[in-house]
Amino acid sequence: MQVATASNSEQIRQGVASAALSRARARARLGLAGWIGVSVLSVILLACVATLPWSAGSVETGTTRLARYEASNLTLNLLPPLWQQLSEEDAQRIARAVEAGQYVPSRVLGTDRLGRDVLARLLAGGAISLLVGLSAATIAVVVGTTYGSIAGAAGGRVDAALMRLVDILFGLPSILLVVLLAVAVDGVLERRGADLPALARQAINIATLLVAIGGVSWLTMARVIRGQVLSLRAKPFMEACRAIGVGPRRQFVSHLLPNLVGPIAVYAALAVPAAILSESFLSFLGIGVREPVPSWGNMAADGLGELNTVESRWWLLAAPCVAIALTLMALNFLGDELRERFDPMRGRKVA
């Protein structure tokens, strides 16, 4: 009887270990949504970042050299994309420009109203939009994690005071705050930055934009991390740490922070598309990234003016909108996959 009991216990242990290993392997595999998100995002990143030497490379336009996304030839404005046949007038315009040795933009996605290469602007604008989105999300994650960790770890009156501040900020319209900050910085530059180079002014505008978006996006992160810290502090392993005299810094770095990686990763993946959408919306309104620097938002604003009942050049609006939609879809799929992987209550069923 004892031999049979020991054999049954060993079988149970082996079964539990096998089930745990199967669950770990299933959670380590990417699902269909994860593969779609990773694949689409990789293609977009590679297309926008790897082509920067071409899209941002300088070309000669008459007596000056400009970046390809900025270079224009007004005699070749509003050329159709490659999938549309050139009219006789457009073919003559291109022939005259070639004979005169003028700058001739590519026709993959045609040219805009100023005769600029739409493809080069789409790729360079994608790199800028992704940079602003990633930077703003990084600021939101760092500030939110720090703030929420301090509130949750301190507890008591400190926690109450910090979270009341978060409640107050939640009641304010975040987009309005971003707009006010961007307009204020732009006004300061107009009064005191007249001697600044155009590139420096653009850099200040972009930096202001990402700081403003990140500065109003950390509130949800702070609440999530604060709740996780309060939950983890009540766990037996944290009580054991306090009982044996582990310092607060080591408690956070060695025990709390590793258990916060899951929520941080999930929120970061979901914060990036929100930041990109905010940047595109503000640039669409003319407050974010300014001309001649491209972004998907200001390209969509330019393309909207080309929709008319006489001759609709829909591709000028469709190109940036499709790029935004694909990026947001990929990042949301990736965020869902991370939530599926890190949340133990949402584990996949093992066949």
Determine the N-to-C terminus distance: 34 Å
Given the helix and strand composition, which structural class is it? mainly alpha
Roughly what is the average pLDDT, rounded to an integer? 79
Helix content: over 70%
The CATH superfamily of the largest domain bears the name MetI-like
- What is the CATH architecture term of the largest domain? Orthogonal Bundle
Give the overall form. elongated
Question: What is CATH's topology name of the largest domain?
Answer: MetI-like fold
Can you describe what's shown?
The protein is an all-alpha fold and 351 residues long. It folds into two domains: 38-71 and 117-346, MetI-like (MetI-like fold, Orthogonal Bundle); 72-116, no CATH class. It contains 13 helices and two strands, in the order H-H-H-E-E-H-H-H-H-H-H-H-H-H-H. Strands 1-2 form a two-stranded antiparallel sheet. The protein is elongated and about 85 Å long. Mean pLDDT is 79; it is low at 1-6, 14-28 and 344-351.
Protein traits:
elongated, MetI-like fold, 2 domains, disordered N terminus, 13 helices, 351 residues
Please describe the topology of this protein.
Elements: H1 2-28, H2 32-50, H3 52-55, E1 58-61, E2 64-67, H4 88-99, H5 118-154, H6 156-170, H7 174-192, H8 198-216, H9 219-233, H10 236-243, H11 248-284, H12 296-304, H13 315-342
Antiparallel strand pairs: 1-2
Helix pairs in contact: 2-5, 2-13, 5-6, 5-8, 5-9, 5-11, 7-8, 9-11, 11-12, 11-13, 12-13
